[in-house]
Amino acid sequence: MLPAGARLRRSEDFRVTMRRGAKAGGRTAVVYVVKTGGASSMAGFAVSRAVGGAVVRNLVKRRLRAVMADALATIPEGSHVVVRALPAAADASFAQLRTDVLGALGRAEVKANS
């Protein structure tokens, strides 16, 4: 799981990341990455009601946190990442979600570095 200090919590952090960050998407999620120059990398998750009911949304959030817990170690220090789940995430298996998020994260990182 993501350590508590590695999670984006403030709405301003989400807003800045989603507006200024590099974006890449897949079938189940859209990933935004922005370089902040801070000391630590952080991730946040946006799972709307369009994904499903509360039980489904919470399942998708738990899966996204598990995927990003491993991925945060591989991204550059000072990066903020927001993962926005799409409705297809509700029906995706963990393996499909992981593949889609990691692929989108890689593409967004390339865009952020250019």
From TrEMBL:
It catalyses: Endonucleolytic cleavage of RNA, removing 5'-extranucleotides from tRNA precursor. One of its GO terms (biological process) is tRNA 5'-leader removal. Keywords: Endonuclease, Hydrolase, Nuclease, RNA-binding, tRNA processing. It is an enzyme of class 3 (hydrolase). Pfam families: Ribonuclease_P (PF00825). SUPFAM superfamilies: Ribosomal protein S5 domain 2-like. PROSITE patterns: RIBONUCLEASE_P (PS00648). InterPro entries: Ribosomal_Su5_D2-typ_SF, Ribsml_uS5_D2-typ_fold_subgr, RNase_P, RNase_P_CS. Its EC number is 3.1.26.5. GO terms for molecular function: 3'-tRNA processing endoribonuclease activity; ribonuclease P activity; tRNA binding. It comes from the Bacteria. The keyword DNA damage does not apply. GO terms for cellular component: ribonuclease P complex. Belongs to the RnpA family. RNaseP catalyzes the removal of the 5'-leader sequence from pre-tRNA to produce the mature 5'-terminus. It can also cleave other RNA substrates such as 4.5S RNA. The protein component plays an auxiliary but essential role in vivo by binding to the 5'-leader sequence and broadening the substrate specificity of the ribozyme. Consists of a catalytic RNA component (M1 or rnpB) and a protein subunit. NCBIfam families: rnpA. This is Ribonuclease P protein component. It comes from Demequina lutea.
